[in-house]
Design goal:
The complex is a heterodimer of chains A (403) and B (479).
Chain A (H helix, E strand, L loop, with lengths): L1 H8 L3 E15 L2 E17 L2 E5 L4 H8 L23 H4 L3 H13 L6 E17 L4 E17 L2 E9 L26 E7 L1 H15 L22 E3 L21 E5 L2 E2 L25 E4 L6 H8 L2 E14 L4 E14 L2 E5 L3 E6 H4 L3 E13 L2 E16 L1 E2 L2
Parallel strand pairs in A: 7-12, 11-17
Antiparallel strand pairs in A: 1-2, 1-4, 2-3, 4-5, 5-6, 7-17, 8-9, 8-11, 9-10, 12-13, 13-14, 13-15, 15-18, 16-17
Chain B lengths: L1 H8 L8 E17 L2 E18 L2 E7 L5 H16 L15 E5 L11 H15 L5 E17 L4 E19 L2 E7 L13 E3 L3 H6 L2 H17 L6 E7 L1 H13 L4 H4 L29 E4 L20 E6 L2 E2 L6 H6 L8 E2 L8 E2 L4 E3 L6 H6 L3 E13 L5 E13 L2 E6 L2 E6 H6 L1 E4 L6 E10 L4 E9 L2 E8 L2
Parallel strand pairs in B: 4-6, 9-16
Antiparallel strand pairs in B: 1-2, 1-5, 2-3, 5-6, 6-7, 6-8, 9-23, 10-11, 10-15, 11-12, 13-14, 16-17, 17-18, 17-19, 19-23, 20-23, 21-22
Helix pairs in contact in B: 3-5
The chains are: A mainly beta (403), B alpha+beta (479).
Chain lengths: 403, 479
């Protein structure tokens, strides 16, 4: 079909996404709504003109592109996509009853009196790309996602599971741990030692990825070969690694290459279109290439070891609304969310109020004293998958306590 | 559209308490000019969405293929029945009169009919007028047209054609260690095609009213000047928030908290909750008595203006805050029903493929009594900030941090030197408790923002904000 659309439209390049998404959403331990969607996204480019249709209407495509001058056709990449298993039957076959049963089991696993919010989603995408220069790629991708927020008497706890295969979603039993009944403790602005949970480090890594590795404007683009982060930090973008959500080619059909972005704290690479990191035209998150599958290389410390290594300080399960303040300085701001606890002598002893932080990501990733061995998988609206462990930061800033 | 909706409603099986069908066609045209290059973009999508309620449980399915509407209905029914097996609390819809109506945005000049060459010429001239020496000099125009039909099992049938038009400038200045941006006439946190500039429910006349070519040299000059401007020093000081920045402040600190679905907890898992809880209506002081906030879907030209929401409820004006006291919510039929009230007509969906959520219409700060010039003149020492550059706010909207594209010192009642990297942060209620001046109607302007994110799957709403500048005492500014 993609070749026919390319031929009849007169486009330089055609991309077709056929998507089916099913979702169950809940709050207060009740189902708030469900969602089922089947859609088509047909993107075509001719020169600098771009047309996106929600249908397979080749005639409309042709009519919309006919006056646009043809662009310079870049030769198709000679390398083949690496092999990766991107689609799984269990995700494709999930039904509304399966999602309701999953929801029921999560509610049943919570302590009495706790409430559950979150969502369960199953997605199937058929992605095809063809160009007049000879590119032709097709791939089916599946995605299963569960997000849980458990709450009880003002306490809340978060967990997320993400996998291409619904049958391999990790357990989320630990979500109840964050609900442990602990006294409240006040918090003063200042800098504290902190254990950053994997889901919080996923957000920080993704935000760094968004602002640091663009080939011209990225914060680290002009600093290749320099030490920019701590020696224990290595960061890779790899679309084929099964520990993420594997995807073998980008929106232009270019095979995704493994790019070592940071090696032992030294900036070693940037992502480019020819590494398989093109962003679609009119992408909501800006123009130009963007990392898609980040991996923070793990350390050797188990979860209990991270808490012990921190000894006294903050335990931050998740951060929220992290936004860039000054991209060149990697300066961001955000707030804590859900189970944020106070540690003393290597164990949680109190619950902390929500707070705002403002920090430089290069400083944060230079202050990690220990990295965890266990990694979690996550994603953001602008990055397909991010995989990161927990870590101990030597000085995490607390600016404003919400109280 | 009507035939498809009626045919689908006719297939709704027994046992369904309520059903509605929306058929939506959305067109978006964008032209972007940068450094002499023109990039046209056209988007078009059409689909059908069906929502059913069975034993108080929702099912929703949408399809890009109108001939698969019956299958989509089957999926929605299967979902609702699967949820009904669990029992649990039932959704209850507030009563609504079933309306049969048609509405179309008033447009003086249809933006889709304006010749491409005319649009291109304006944008090229505007981008060139920004001037040299910049990393980027961009001008862009967007128009959206949504033709949609809503029909329900209660007998409602509403057809609307909403046209939204906007344009803007963006100058980007880059040095070895700094990147500064200046936008006009409104900005968004990211440089996203389709979300740049200021929008209105209007035609091409709105683009012409923005005077892009005339404003461009100032925009370019300010971007260049920002590179060498001093950084806003950290201080607790008096802050004057200009109208463009105020749009985002009102949006985040009052708009989202006033969405009743957030307050009731149904968005807690993603977008978050709200500090405006139902039991606090009529008693919670959220600002000085100078502060009045309204949500008005009928505001002429506002980007959040429409005749009926996506549940067929008429758009209306709601007082959110009156003289500093929290009064009311934006609501849908379900959220209003949970409080035993009637909907305020604020349920809107992002296109055909999304379920209606409680969304802002035009959430505005009502003008005060003080001329803007007098606010400046009566400020001995402070900072004036303009145009949002970044924002972050917690999930219940109780603490925030905004960054502005540009600022100026205020000394002895006069605007002084330019400042860059201006930020201000604080707790929402303390911030608005420090509001001691709100500019008068002469400064009132409605800004359109096509970039409000909420929901899962993500929905992007088009909203408006009427704003005036205002002054706040004892605010933390600077990094």
């Amino acid at each position: 079909m993609i070749e026919e659309l390319l031929a009849t439209s007169g486009a330089d390049h055609v991309e077709l996404l056929q998507e089916r998404q099913e979702l169950l959403r809940f709050g207060g331990s009740r189902i708030t709504y469900q969602h089922s969607e089947e859609k088509v996204t047909l993107r075509a480019r001719r020169g600098r003109a771009c047309v996106t249709l929600g249908s397979l209407d080749a005639e409309l495509l042709q009519a919309r592109l006919k006056d646009a001058p043809r662009g310079k056709l870049e030769p198709a990449p000679q390398i083949a996509p690496r092999q990766a298993n991107t689609a799984f039957a269990a995700t494709e076959a999930a039904t509304p009853a399966d999602r309701v049963e999953l929801f029921r089991s999560y509610v049943a696993a919570l302590p009495a009196g706790a409430n559950l919010g979150g969502s369960i989603a199953h997605t199937v995408v058929d992605h095809a790309v063809a160009s007049a220069a000879g590119v032709l790629r097709e791939e089916r991708r599946t995605r299963a996602l569960v997000q849980l927020i458990a709450s009880q008497e003002g306490r809340s706890s978060y967990a997320r599971a993400l996998h291409r295969d619904a049958a391999q979603l990790p357990s989320l039993a630990t979500v109840a741990d964050g609900l442990a009944s602990l006294p409240e403790r006040s918090l003063e602005p200042g800098r504290y030692r902190a254990v950053l949970g994997p889901q919080s480090l996923i957000v920080f890594a993704a935000t760094l990825g968004q602002i640091a590795f663009h080939p011209t404007d990225g914060a680290f683009a002009q600093r290749l070969g320099e030490r920019v982060l701590g020696e224990n930090v290595s960061l890779v973008d790899d679309g084929a690694d099964p520990d993420g959500l594997p995807t073998t080619f980008d929106c232009e059909g270019t095979p995704k290459q493994r790019v070592q972005l940071i090696e032992h704290g030294v900036a070693t690479g940037v992502i480019r279109r020819d590494t398989g990191h093109a962003a679609p035209p009119a992408w909501r998150f800006g123009a130009g290439p963007s990392p898609s599958h980040l991996f923070l290389v793990p350390g050797k410390v188990d979860d209990a070891g991270l808490v012990a290594a921190c000894d006294t300080g903050l335990a931050i399960q998740r951060v929220d609304y992290v936004r860039t303040v000054q991209p060149k300085q990697t300066l961001v701001t955000g707030s804590s969310r859900d189970a944020t606890l106070w540690l003393e002598r290597g164990r949680p002893v109190a619950r902390l109020p929500q707070f705002r932080f403002t920090l430089r990501l290069d400083e944060l990733f230079s202050s990690l004293e220990a990295l965890g061995a266990r990694r979690e998988r996550g994603e953001t609206a602008f990055m397909e998958s991010v995989v990161a462990p927990g870590a101990v930061a030597s000085a995490f800033p607390v600016d404003v306590v919400t109280g | 559209m009507r035939e498809l909706a009626e045919r689908t409603l006719g297939l709704v099986p027994a046992g369904v308490e309520y059903a509605d069908v929306r058929v939506v066609l959305r067109r978006h045209e964008c032209i972007h000019a940068e450094n002499g290059l023109i990039s046209p973009l056209y988007e078009e999508t059409e689909g059908v969405a069906i929502r059913v309620l069975i034993e108080g449980q929702w099912g929703f399915a949408a399809s890009a293929f109108p001939d698969r509407a019956e299958a989509a209905l089957g999926r929605a029914v299967a979902q609702a029945r699967a949820a009904a097996v669990l029992g649990g609390p039932r959704a209850r819809l507030a009563p609504a009169e079933p309306v049969v109506a048609r509405y179309e945005t008033t447009v003086e000049r249809d933006p889709f009919a304006v010749p491409f060459a005319e649009k291109q010429a304006l944008l090229v001239a505007a981008a060139e007028a920004i001037g040299p020496g910049l990393r980027g000099a961009e001008a862009s125009y967007d128009c959206f047209r949504e033709t949609k039909l809503f029909a329900s099992s209660e007998g409602a049938c509403v057809e609307q054609v909403l046209t939204e038009t906007g344009a803007g400038l963006l100058a980007t200045a880059l040095s070895a260690d700094d990147l500064q941006r200046r936008s006009y006439p409104q900005s968004v946190p990211r440089s996203i095609k389709g979300q740049r500039g200021d929008f209105a429910t209007a035609g091409w006349e709105h683009v012409e009213s923005l005077r892009l070519v005339e404003e461009a040299p100032r925009v370019g000059e300010e971007a260049r000047a920002l590179l060498s401007a001093p950084v806003c020093p950290p201080a607790r000081t008096t802050l004057i928030v200009a109208g463009t920045q105020m749009a985002l402040v009102v949006h985040e600190t009052f708009g989202h908290p006033a969405e009743l679905d957030r307050a009731l907890g149904s968005e807690a898992s993603l977008a978050g909750g709200s500090y405006l809880q139902p039991e606090l209506r009529g008693s919670l002081r959220v600002g000085t008595d100078l502060v009045t906030i309204t949500a008005d879907g009928t505001l002429p030209g506002g980007m959040g203006s429409y005749a009926y929401d996506d549940e067929g409820v008429p758009a209306q004006r709601t007082v959110v805050v009156e003289d500093g006291i929290f009064r009311g919510y934006l609501t849908s039929r379900e959220s209003a029903g949970a409080l035993g009230e009637r909907s305020t007509g604020a349920a809107r969906a992002d296109g055909w493929a999304r379920i209606p959520l409680v969304r802002m219409s035009n959430v505005s700060i009502e003008p005060g009594e003080t001329p803007y010039e007098e606010i400046i003149a009566s400020t001995k020492d402070g900072i004036l900030v303009d145009m949002n550059r970044s924002l972050s706010i917690d999930d219940t909207r109780r603490n925030f941090r905004f960054g502005s594209e540009i600022g100026w010192e205020i000394k002895d009642g006069e605007r002084g030197r330019m400042l860059k990297n201006c930020t201000f942060s604080g707790r929402t209620l303390e911030f608005w408790a420090g509001c001691d001046a709100v500019a008068d109607r002469a400064s009132f302007r409605v800004y359109g923002l096509p970039s409000c994110n909420k929901g899962e799957p993500l929905q992007v709403a088009h909203v408006g904000h009427g704003t005036v500048p205002a002054r706040f005492r004892n605010v933390q500014v600077g990094v």
